[in-house]
Write a structure and sequence with these properties.
The chain is an alpha+beta fold. Helix content is 27%, strand content 25%. The chain has 13 helices and 22 strands. The chain has a 7-stranded mixed β-sheet. It has a 5-stranded parallel β-sheet with strand order 6-5-4-10-22, covered by helices on one side. A 3-stranded antiparallel β-sheet has the order 1-3-2, with helices on one face.
Length: 530
């Protein structure tokens, strides 16, 4: 016999299955010996009041053992002799497109400019040691994409576009904790996500798909207005080759060479609004005290606290982005002459710092003149290069204490930081574009009034957070998901301007795979070509 209950528990009561059993036994009148299992279906923390509660939805098993898996498994068939589909990019959009293609009986061939998820670690570590960035293998490029070495956040509001629950199930099938199925704001953690990604790759290969690392797309192969494949180059040997099939383009939001190639080739794109700002880092104990309304912080039973802020300043949104409790600020540039910062967290979120992007909406029309297709990308690059110069042309990031920034004064010293390449004091209020700096100053004053203690010189702003999303949108038809002019080309995910984050990119990858299947079904002769 099973029962489902909505429970409201103190953190120590929700700490383990055993403590939840004890609570259910006491409150619902069950003999504790008859409760064989308690499965948490949903979990969220309510910290709005001084007493913090954990809200749970649980399934209680009485005198029976659960005979169902916590997640639904998917069977992946052998597609080694099936028609080929080229997937450019092995981020979440590309990987989930590939898995869905296998489900649909098509053979994915993934072409990824970067290295596999484990080899990437060496190049990422070298950024701090050598102050140099490998333009093809870094925090953005390589297997797993920009999300592989981040917090691994799996929360998304884009639930109408596809089955987000299925995405979480696939992650569980490949090694992620089943806690992501219950948590209101699920995350995997940068220490565990790489193994999950490797398992996904193995599923693709074992099903007959292909994965080509350090292989960079350099051109589209076309017949009139139909895309029939890509030209690529092996970055190790310099060997050029062609891959033939419809193309799912899932390059991620930092593939600027692809945007330039499309622009020069007259392939239809448009500039897209994005958000630009800084990484704001506080001591995690301070954020815990503020969010949990307790001078002792989170204590033994609660996780590192999260926050979310949003306001409007001058007709533009200013908000926190990609909050990483108990995390680190990382160097996320994709080439020389740039400083870009991002955040990541291990699964235990156990560092002494918490950080978040603090960003301002910027629209193409905010830049003044008639916007060009690449105007937002040029805007990003200008800020990143200014950061590079302010950082003494190394990966040492320009930074400023939070109150000093709002008061427009230089910080004569800086607090300790998780940013490994180091910080250098810089007047961000002076050289950041005023459409960003002035709005951030006003927003910080607002956030400080609504959350006492948040506006503090214990916090430091680290510049610049510029890669929140793609600076362009590659235009596609809303029904077929093909490019508006080039059939057989399926712009996909965050890099094409249709997603933001791991789950929404994965959902869009599945949608594009479904669209490719419909493309084949509409023209059966295509299967013979590929």
């Amino acid at each position: 016999m099973t029962y489902e209950y909505q429970l409201r528990l103190l953190p120590q009561q929700a700490a383990s299955e055993q403590t939840i059993k004890e609570f259910v036994s006491r409150e619902k009148g069950f003999d504790a010996r008859t409760i064989t299992s308690v499965r948490v279906l949903r979990r969220s923390i309510d910290a709005r009041q001084r007493t913090v509660f954990v809200n749970l939805k649980v399934r209680v098993y009485i005198n029976e053992t659960p005979d169902d898996d916590e997640y639904e498994r998917i069977s992946y068939q052998d597609v080694s002799s099936a028609p080929a589909v080229i997937v450019v990019g092995a981020g979440p959009g590309g990987l989930f497109a590939a898995l869905r293609l296998i489900e649909l009986g098509l053979r994915p061939i993934i072409v990824e400019r970067g290295k596999d998820v484990h080899e990437r670690k060496k190049d990422i570590a070298a950024i701090t040691k050598t102050q140099k960035v490998d333009g093809e293998s870094n925090y953005c490029f390589g297997e797993g994409g920009a999300g592989a070495y981040s917090d691994g956040k799996l929360y998304t509001r884009s639930k109408k576009r596809g089955d987000t629950r299925k995405i979480l199930n696939v992650f569980c099938q490949h090694g992620a904790s089943t806690a992501i199925l219950a948590d209101a704001h699920p995350h995997i953690g940068t220490d565990k996500l790489p193994k999950v990604i490797e398992n996904i790759r193995n599923t693709i290969i074992n099903s007959g798909g292909e994965v080509h690392f350090q292989t960079k797309m350099v051109s589209l192969i076309t017949e009139g207005d139909k895309v029939t494949g890509i030209g690529a180059v092996n970055l190790v040997t310099g060997t050029e080759r062609e891959f033939h099939g419809p193309v799912i383009l899932a390059t991620g939001h930092s593939a600027r060479d692809v945007y330039r190639y499309f622009n020069e080739s007259g392939i239809e794109m448009e500039p897209k609004a994005l958000a630009v700002g800084v990484r704001l880092e506080h001591p995690s104990e301070l954020i815990d005290r503020i969010q949990y309304h307790n001078k002792n912080g989170r204590g033994r039973w609660l996780p590192a606290a999260e926050y979310s802020f949003v306001t409007q300043v001058g007709g533009r949104g200013v908000y926190s982005f990609c909050m990483c409790p108990g995390g680190f600020v990382i160097p996320a540039a994709t080439g020389p002459g740039q400083i870009v910062v991002n955040g990541m967290s291990p699964s235990n979120r156990g560092s002494q710092w918490s950080n978040s992007g603090m960003v301002v909406e910027v629209h193409p029309e905010d830049l003044g003149d008639i916007p060009s297709t690449l105007c937002m990308m040029d805007f990003q690059e200008k800020i990143e290069h200014d950061c590079w110069q302010q950082g003494n042309m190394r990966q040492t990031a320009p930074a400023q204490r939070m109150v000093d920034f709002t008061r427009s004064r230089l910080s004569y010293d800086l607090p300790r930081s998780s940013y490994a390449p180091g910080l250098i004091s810089s007047p961000l209020h002076f050289w950041l574009p005023s459409i960003i700096s002035k709005r951030l100053q006003d927003a910080f004053e607002t956030f400080g009034r609504t959350s006492r203690g948040f506006l503090t010189n214990e916090a430091v702003l680290i510049a610049a957070e510029t890669r929140t999303s793609s600076p362009v949108r590659i235009l596609r038809d809303g029904v077929s998901l093909q490019h508006v002019r080039l059939s057989g080309l399926f712009p996909c995910g965050e890099g094409a301007g249709y997603a933001g984050g791991i789950v929404s990119a994965a959902v869009d990858g599945e949608r594009c795979a479904n669209a490719v299947k419909a493309y084949f079904d509409a023209s059966p002769s295509l299967q013979e070509l590929f």
